[in-house]
Input
Amino acid sequence: MSSGGGRLDVARVRGLFPGLSDGFVHADAPAGSLVPESVIRAVSQAMRVPIANRGGVFPASARAEQLVSGARSAVADLVGATPAGVVLGANMTSLTYSLARALAKQWRPGDEVVVSRLDHDANVRPWMQVADETGVQVRWAEVDIETGELPVWQYDELLTPRTRLVAVSAASNAIGTRPDVAGIAERAHRVGALVYVDGVHAAPHGLLDLRAMGADFLAVSAYKWCGPHVAAVVADPGLLGEFWPDKLMPAPDRVPDRYEAGTPPFELYAGLTAAVEHLADLCPAATGTRRQRLATSMGAVERYEGELFGRLDRALRAMPHVQVLGAPVRPTPTLSFTVSRMRPRQVARELARHNVCAWDGDFYARELFDAIGVNETGGAVRFGLLHYNTAGDVEHLIESVAALR
Output
């Protein structure tokens, strides 16, 4: 998913984030990133001028239209899609529930959906619940517990002519695994199934390409890549036109608007656009269209984060009192671990005493952690790096975990 050349000027990048002034090492990015000044300013400026709802004939309404169209274009550039196929919403979970209900209107008893043990629950439970309501069978793709990989070959056995949808993650928010989504999608399309990809955790760590992945639907959340708390699901506009979500009668029938319930947070859409611009401008060598700048910058991000994470991963795996969960071949800069004789919440508290922000629990990867067997003792502790982390941060994380011995 990487592309382009160039390197990050990390000192410059860190200067963009006022939140880094608190003196903590922020290793909690998988749960939500810090926000750069440009995004804060974009939201603030949007709230300083009159904004009305869409559809009016006066300037305040026109500003709302511009903010919506700007956000659609930004997300389209982020994932290599068309703005007319970008559905905006409050969060990935709500959008997925809405899409699940819309798609399930065409399912019949005896049809099948395939979900994965690797996924965040937001790409599992909505499909299971609508399947239960419609008499559709749920089939499971299993994770290799030792490696944390999601083997592609099992889909040859799971998929049948009755499969209507395959839900899969582009990257695990818990252990970093990046499955072969394109390989899974190619198998799904052979039997006529649609593919719904959770790209929430993958988006901050490399260039996403809707078509290359073979995704029919791709979900992303801006707060994972330095934006506000809004999200999007992206698809071909023609595909969106085949389904009818639940909506209010006066709400527009056109795509993608008919998928967007209620009055949107226009000011946050300004922040979403600014967050995409932030990603596109991370690498000084990035030139051309916004999509081209994203390719260069996200390629630099992927290389930089990979170098940092390699050091962290190797060091933690070498500690006898630490067990790192899984060993994916090409992970995002994310790992979960346990510490001997300490519950995850105890570990997180001790790390906080060392000025480290780290989450403990199951990270909504409930099925994965049940399969691994760590939920009974409180889950695990997670470190996740982003482009504002440094080699010094990594050394501090290593020293802090070593001190737990």
